[in-house]
Amino acid sequence: MPRRQPSSESRESASTAPSDRPLRLLSGPAWLTVLLVCAGSFLLMMLALAIANDRGFLAMWRMQSEVVQLVHDVRKIEAVNDELLLNIERLRHDKGYIEKLAREELGLVRPEELVFEYVQ
């Protein structure tokens, strides 16, 4: 049996089928555009991660402000601590300071002293 020649219609449809034509790579400006879009997308993703990640810029900024606040709190507590240490030393060694506190805060007097109270 003789072989039939394909008609021109079947040749056209066969030539447009994706499996029959060879793949061609992008060249020139199209390839460059795809590369730039991919690189830009990658850079945007990396920038978003650097800013919004739990170890990113915003987290670092929050931690930095927290460190500043904690240093401020530590300095205030150290100042109060120094005042308390000074007060302890005065209570241990200064009899006049103890007497002053006893008179002012507790209202104590010596046995030989007279107390005058003014009632208004």
Short characterization:
The chain is mainly α and 120 residues long. It has helices at residues 8-16, 29-52, 57-93, 95-106.
Task: Report on the architecture of this protein.
Helices cover 68% and strands 0% of the residues. The chain is mainly alpha-helical and 120 residues long. The protein has a domain at 28-106. This is Septum formation initiator. The chain crosses the membrane at residues 30-52.
What share of residues are in beta strands? under 5%
Poorly predicted runs? none
Bin the helical content.
55-70%
**Mean pLDDT over all positions:** 84
Number of strands: 0
Global structural class: mainly alpha
List the secondary-structure elements in sequence, H or E: HHHH
Largest sheet: none
Q: Which radius of gyration do the C-alpha atoms yield?
A: 45 Å
Question: What is the global morphology?
Answer: rod-shaped
Keywords:
single chain; 120 residues; mainly alpha; 4 helices; 68% helix; rod-shaped
What are the SSEs and their pairings?
Elements: H1 8-16, H2 29-52, H3 57-93, H4 95-106
